[in-house]
Backbone:
């Protein structure tokens, strides 16, 4: 029987049969809001509809310990603040012994390494720029999880010590300058304190999505231009430090902001990274290649990596 | 037969029988200046004096590829700028098949993980503050070398983009603020441009060694105090980014400046690292424990790690 990968999101659950990094049959359902057991049941139903599996991998939005226990899942209704043994719940519901669960960003990185923009390479750091800045690290073909399961947190690398407060409570982290939530907060702060800008005009009271950023930048709005330049600096600083410590050849960039701003944005970050390395370093920065399938492909790979 | 570890330095070669991380018999010789073959011969003589070995590990001052070829050794007379297949030369001279060679900083890190300040831990980043800032990274009990053999280069992590020129040609790297050579250059620059300081007065035309720094700091010299504060910030920024990307629990600090300034300096760097992490992070920063034996112990461990 095949391997099935599950991409568990805050609003939907995607399940796919994956063979050799290629997605076959898929099934999709809304994420139930009744909590962990209901989520495990939906996963079991999707697996059954797909004909069952020997091995099952799950990418989940939150912090996951190496033993498959979720220790934080703010975007999953009903998961609350307690520890949730998601791997065991899914194993019980499906009858499959070999269930592996990891953080969705880690799993996406594994997908890009297995079958996407870092295919054929043993090491890759994937950086996802969305509401926050997430990262997943694959070394020697395996996910680096770390003793607390929080490896890859490039969004919390140090950018400006003593600088802007980060969502995590730390100071001057990359995410405080390059995460969309932090960038929106700064744009609104500037708007309110005498720097009116297109970002706030376009977004109004609604969330300042990536397309708002794209439109304001296309307009040449000075605040948008300046905040984006700072975001590039921040992300590039975090990436460059990781490259130096790990000797990485390939960085993959994904997430909403990267998709919206496209290849020129990726190239710009690549140049800023290069400026921080040894002169002539062979490291390349490329866009993610798997789109919405990175999660299920990576989850299947996770299950197969034992 | 036992394992022998070799610490090949610019001025001396230390060889030791190492068993379970403990140093037994040792032999020491001056490093010959006639080049790679002469070095291999001296190593073979020391091994023979120690009764021979099944496995041999060598820590060497310079850049070493994963296949044991040195691609740069500025501190070894006669090695020049060509590639030197040191592992093969030593295997030929000693008749031992199992010869492993790695960079001395990497080997020191492996020693501290095997039997020193990170004993019993699977992961450690060792940072050595001397003329430059070197680093060695052990993950899951094995040295991280990277595809070009340059992993662990914490001295070239990004600190102040656009800032001081680093010895490597890059800009704003940690080493440009926290390496002794760079710190001396800055102290002399300030002295010459109207900020006379105790560092230059104490050192005169001689190298500004760690003991000069200790004396000037004890005197409260403002330039020494300010340059050291900057060095702490720089090193802590590089370390914190590595901790975030890798989820590291233990950082080991060594090198001349750390030995001279002692535990309060280590504690100060530890606090600066902590201020850059997730609040409440369990990462600890401790001094190296093996002193001059880190090299031979780590080299033996390298040989045993296959």
Residues:
């Amino acid at each position: 029987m095949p391997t099935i990968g599950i991409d568990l999101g805050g609003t939907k659950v995607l399940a796919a049969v994956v063979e050799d990094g290629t997605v076959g049959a898929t099934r999709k359902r809304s994420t139930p809001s009744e909590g962990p057991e209901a989520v495990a049941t939906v996963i079991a139903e999707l697996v059954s509809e797909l004909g069952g599996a020997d091995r099952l991998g799950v990418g989940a939005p939150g912090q996951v310990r190496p033993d498959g226990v979720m220790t934080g899942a703010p975007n999953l209704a009903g998961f609350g603040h307690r520890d949730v043994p998601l791997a065991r719940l899914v194993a019980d519901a499906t009858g499959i012994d070999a269930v592996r669960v990891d953080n969705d960003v880690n799993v996406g990185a594994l997908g890009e390494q297995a079958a996407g923009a870092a295919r054929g390479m043993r090491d890759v750091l994937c950086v996802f720029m969305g509401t926050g800045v997430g990262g997943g690290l694959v070394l020697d073909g395996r996910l680096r999880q770390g003793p607390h399961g929080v490896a890859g947190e490039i969004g919390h690398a140090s950018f400006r010590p003593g600088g802007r407060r980060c969502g995590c409570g730390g100071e001057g982290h990359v995410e405080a300058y390059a995460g969309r939530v932090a960038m929106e907060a700064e744009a609104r702060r500037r708007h309110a304190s005498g720097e009116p800008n297109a970002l706030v005009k376009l977004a109004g009271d609604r969330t300042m999505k990536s397309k708002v950023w794209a439109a304001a930048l296309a307009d040449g709005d000075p605040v948008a231009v300046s905040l984006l330049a700072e975001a590039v600096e921040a992300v590039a600083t975090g990436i460059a430090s990781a490259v130096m410590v790990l000797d990485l050849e390939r960085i993959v960039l994904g997430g909403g902001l990267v998709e919206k701003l496209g290849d020129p944005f990726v190239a710009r970050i690549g140049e800023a990274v290069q400026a921080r390395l040894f002169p002539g370093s062979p490291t390349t920065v490329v866009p993610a290649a798997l789109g919405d399938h990175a999660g299920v492909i990576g989850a299947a790979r996770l299950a197969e990596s034992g």
